[in-house]
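Hi all, long-time lurker, first post. I run a small reading group and we've been trying to get comfortable going from sequence to structure in the token notation. Rather than ask abstract questions, I figured I'd post a concrete chain and ask someone more experienced to write out its structure so we can walk through it together at our next meeting. Sequence below, copied exactly:
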Amino acid sequence: MAGSPIIFPRGREIVLGVSAGIAAYKSCDVLRRLQDHGFLVTVVPTESSLNFVGKATWQALSGRNVHTSVWENSAEVSHVALADRADLIVIAPATADLISRLAQGRADDLLTTTVIASGCPVLIVPAMHPQMWLNQATVANVELLRKRGFTVLDPAVGRLTGKDSGIGRFPETKIIIDKVLELSNSVAVLMNRKVLVTAGGTIEPIDPVRYIGNRSSGRQGLAVAYEALRAGAEVTVIAGQTDYFELEGARVLEVETAEEMLELVEAEFSSHDSLVMSAAVADARPVSSAEGKIKKESFTKIELLENPDILASIGKLKRANQVVVGFAAETESNLVELGRDKLVRKGADLLYVNNVAQGAVFGSDSTSGALLSVDGSSEFFDNVSKHEVARRIVNGIAKRLELVNG
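-- Answer (accepted) --
Happy to help. Here is the structure in token form:
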């Protein structure tokens, strides 16, 4: 993988704040469900909350380091870094004390300083004894926070600690997740689905130094993988030669040649609901690869052998309840006609055909083309972000899976 790093847009980062209430243990399930919906979660517990759920538990569940103090990792200015990265802050549970401190605008620990430093939406999930929730001070603090734009859920009514019962119970996880999805405008249309994405170009060795390749950067395929993660899918990426990337949450398998890619795609496809075949597979490879470097004076011709057509091969293996998305790069003016012919011949459900005349699209963050469907519909794009196309592809996969799975 070479080239400048691919910087994926923010949009699936959540800070989960946990304050010192007995309901802290219920936030473990909230964390898991957030991950199911494709969010990456950093947990910021207050120091006192660690009496209920320890740091090791949060680190194991989130897969991320957990800090409670502004003074930990101070070189990175943790609260500013967290605030900049977060698209949503969820505080669950929120005690009467924490609500009071937020209402006063205090910033005396890592969680409150992160809230103060951030401009993103904040969702507060209170949990406390009924008399604490109904106390005039708490009522006034909640009203003030709501006026400032904070979203504060009402606690549930039910059994609390000991023999107590009444309002103040931690809400059901589904209620919290529904509110998160509403605030983040994120709908997990691929929840519990597995998506396989190929990205980048293949290289076919001529000798230990030279190879046949193409100009693919892999950016479109990686954008699809990212958007599928955001949509709640479990994502595997089979990556050829791409720009350098980091895609947290995805399983990444690296290959070089077309034959290696075919082998992995065939091995993985049966366990996935959808394949997005966006890799730029070399059409041909040398009949043989020299063990040593071919001398310049002997480098006169290369005998080529056609590479396997991975999309066509998989189209024949596709089950009725699977969705296959193909890609086509064309330089002719009748690219839609060419794309629709390829869609039918390759047995794909969707196909994105883009115009690569004069080297357009390769290595760029934008693209132009048409997304074609087996149902005959078409959607056209003119110099739009590759992530815009990726989102339309993800939505197309979701609709098609719903159709073929009844």
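A couple of things your group might point at:
The chain has a mean pLDDT of 87.
Residues 13-184 form a domain with the Rossmann fold fold (CATH 3.40.50.1950).
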